[in-house]
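Hi R.,

Here are the chain sequences for the assembly we discussed:
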Amino acid sequence: MMSHFQGSEGRYRGRFAPSPSGPLHNGSLLAAMASFLDARVHRGEWLLRIEDIDTPRVVPGADRIIMQQLKALDMQWDAPPIWQSQRLALYRSAFESLAARDQVYGCACTRQELPPEGAYPGTCRHGLPPGKTARAWRLRVPPGIERFQDRWHGPQEQDVAAVTGDFIVKRADGLWAYQLVVVVDDGEQGITHIVRGADLLDSTARQRVLARQLGIPYPQVMHVPLLRDEAGRKLSKQNHAAAMDLSKPVHTLNRAWQALGFDTVNAASAPEFWQAALNQWAARYGMHQS
Ligand code: GLU
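And here is the predicted structure of the full complex:
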């Protein structure tokens, strides 16, 4: 599955992977900013991947707005963007390679049949109950503790079999699950470093398990804080996170920068902001060795 796309050995390659369910907001800007800066201080590449696989959530035109927003903030990506909706053959072939090794199985359970929380109980692991047909497909998660370092949060461990159990790689609605496509894309694009929001820290162990089963090396990770509203909820499109003010780019950038734990930068323009931010990011995270 590794292709010509793979980065040359040791070369940093990062990405920003927004879901086009709406424009970027002050919350999603944090992940964009941190991934951009980290790629720049490592003299790496910064790729843009439009995660439009979850079609019911895609808002037509949001991808173009996101690109305009990034450009307005002087955040230029280094290669033509990719759209997950155009890569279905890749996901199918990854799935088929898992199926050929019996690492996935069909599951007939409906949401109502599953416990509201906790790991999948394994109902269909050894075959579908009589008279039932497969709805979704799950990965056979091997036993064991998954351990890794997060560059923001430090050492992490998760017993994936106990926490989530066999998780879904192909959904009951026929769509490829986020966990599958993200691992396949990061592998196929030769991503060496993932920098994204802390809401995905919990997915990382699952993605590492899946990557290993697909024979894909898993990138270094850094999960940056989420912006929260006064009630402590993650700012998201769903709860009407404030739109970004692009008429004052430096102000908008400084808000995200502060939320990442840095002091406001005095800058007259976005390029000036980035110069100062790069120096400060390099001082804090630039010596990172992968
Ligand atoms: N598309 C995901 C999101 O917008 C991010 C996926 C990732 O960075 O791994 O939340």
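Residues 13-289 form a domain with the Rossmann fold fold (CATH 3.40.50.620). The longest helix spans residues 270-285.

Let me know if anything looks off.

Best,
T.
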